[in-house]
Amino acid sequence: MFKKSTSRRDFVRSGALVAVACAAPSGVLSLSYESPTGEEASPIRLGLASYTFRNFTRAQMIAFMKQLKVFALNLKDVKDHLPMDPQQEAAALADYASAGINLHAAGAIYFAKDEDADIRSKFEYCKRAGIGVIVAGDPTPETLPRIEKFVKEYDIRIAIHNHGPEDKLWHSPLDVLKAVKGMDPRIGCCIDVGHTVRAGTDVVQAIHEAGPRLLNLHMKDLADFHDKESQVAVGDGFMPVRKMFEALIATKYKGFVDLEYEVHPDDPMPGVSSSFAYMRGVLAGLGYRVQV
Length: 292
What we know:
Blueprint: H1 6-22, E1 45-49, H2 58-68, E2 72-75, H3 86-99, E3 102-109, H4 116-129, E4 133-136, H5 144-154, E5 157-161, H6 173-180, E6 187-192, H7 193-198, H8 203-210, E7 214-219, E8 221-222, E9 231-232, H9 241-250, E10 256-259, H10 269-285
Parallel strand pairs: 1-2, 1-10, 2-3, 3-4, 4-5, 5-6, 6-7, 7-10
Antiparallel strand pairs: 8-9
């Protein structure tokens, strides 16, 4: 079992937070990574998966996002975050627009039926919201050709989400990549880094292998790569965050890194705030200008 000592955890976190203030390049970078000047804006865009605040209303979540200074949102139809009903959805969109929040993805959205009407309803839902990426939870390989037809019609990308060892189809992003090879390039994967490491996949290598088919990334951290229940704030576990960010930059990833903090659902803000501080610190330590 992996176990991180308190002193080690505090050392890593304090180093990241110091980097936010100093914004100085540090360490030896991978051969594929070129250190910036310190004046460059970060190419890694941080966002939030609304499932993090699944026990809170839309208004509460917007208030939390303002506190966090995070204005990019990956939405799920939970609570009143983005209802499927068109009128209720319109009200939600007005609230997000007023708050200056960018809606870039939605999911996980499940495609239980291999039927045009069911699939179209989900594309229409995202089209109304101006969302360009659907994070798909469980499409079967047999359904993908039908989904591909709607990808072409709507010009909305599909990012298939892996759910680790328990997933009957998509244990790892590598399973997704095999299934979509040769399909429209707007069909790819959403790498959930926690589920990926639990499936025994090297998450940094998976980012490189996905390349342009990586359309979204769900960020989390684990204290034990064999235990789904060991999730902790980003930086308190063993996730290779710096190496992942270097890989994303090297592959010219254009999507968002969306924090999906699934623990402490009734009081997530301490862990969420700590996670964003750590990620911003890593980016500053890589030499990028970080606005907080």
